[in-house]
Amino acid sequence: LSDTSVGRAKPDFLVGVFDSGVGGLSVLQALRKQLPGANYVYLGDTARLPYGTKSDRTVIDYALQATHHLVSHDVDALVVACNTASSVALPAIQSAYPGIPVFGVVDPGARAACRASRTRRIAVVATESTVLGGAYQKAIFAECSSARVTARACPLLVTLAEEGWMGNPLRQALVDAYVKPWLRSSGAVDTLLLGCTHFPLLGALFRQAVPAGVQLVDSAETTAREVAGELGSRSRLTGSAQVRFLSTDDAARFARIGGWFLGAPISEQQVTLIDL
Ligand code: DGL
Q: Fewer C-beta within 10 Å: the chain N or C terminus?
């Protein structure tokens, strides 16, 4: 018998990153900094965004389809860089692929909020599905049981983040409309957790909308640090943070809007259209 693997280098460590759209690119960016020795394949299911207004059943189906696709690229690990999918589909993904480490963004986000908050009064903005399912509320209580959590669904802000509208005062007005009356009626909080991958792009608008002294936290950096901590020590990391982009709709739009979230330009030619 000949061993065909003799002399063939093992491919570089490949991390699959998945989001309903382009928001997860902010998590990807943080991962590339924290784990530069891996390569990445990023899948944005832009054809079916938003996930945040859909039922759990639908989100689980979509998330499993995206995972199957990434597994067909032979990924060594998977990061679910979508709060909605992390909230409802993580156990289904983990039990479908028990051999692959799967990371979500909700638990790291909850840990970041608990570390940031001194008063344990934490506010969370997220999609409808994430808020109604109580994922962040549960994750924060698991981390710090004395916390008091208030959560607000802000579905229009997903669209706003993708619209751009830089310099348009309607952007601030919309964030204010969601945040200001809610926080006034919730009592004093000292931390606002941005529990949706689209919201870090609106960070400056949230900053304006909350009282001075309230800290803004998101899960991108914490997730990336936790993933790097887990994988960095036990993986052969010979990659160079290269990325392949996969999109289920309109490569040009993915490239244009995705560049804002990634913080670096993406060309249309770098994006491969796929069906799930
Ligand atoms: N990526 C989603 C999340 O983080 C936001 C967009 C959507 O609703 O699909 O919850």
A: N
Put simply, whether the predicted model's pTM sits higher than 0.90 gets the answer: yes
Q: At what angle do helices 156-163 and 169-186 cross, to 10 degrees?
A: 150
> CB–CB of 78/93 below 8 Å?
yes
Ligand 1 contact, 82 CB (< 6 A) = yes
Q: Where do the DSSP E strands lie in 53-98?
A: 77-80
State the DSSP H helix or E strand holding residue 161, giving kind and residue range, or none if neither.
helix 156-163
pLDDT, tens digit, for every residue of 6-47?
455 567 899 999 999 999 999 999 999 999 999 999 999 999
Cα(84) to centroid of ligand 1, in Å? 6
Q: Which residue has the tokens 């759990």?
A: 56
Structure tokens at 112: 């970041």
Count of residues making up the chain: 276
What is the pLDDT averaged over residues 120-142? 96
Asked whether the CA dihedral 64, 67, 71, 75 is positive or negative, the reply is: negative
Per-residue pLDDT at 10: 61
Q: Is 197 in the pocket of ligand 1 (CB under 6 A)?
A: yes
d(CA 162, CA 198): 8
Task: Tell me the pLDDT tens digit for each residue of 219-239.
Answer: 999 999 999 999 987 667 888
Q: Where are the beta strands (DSSP E) in 55-96?
A: 77-80
The H or E element spanning position 43 is strand 39-44
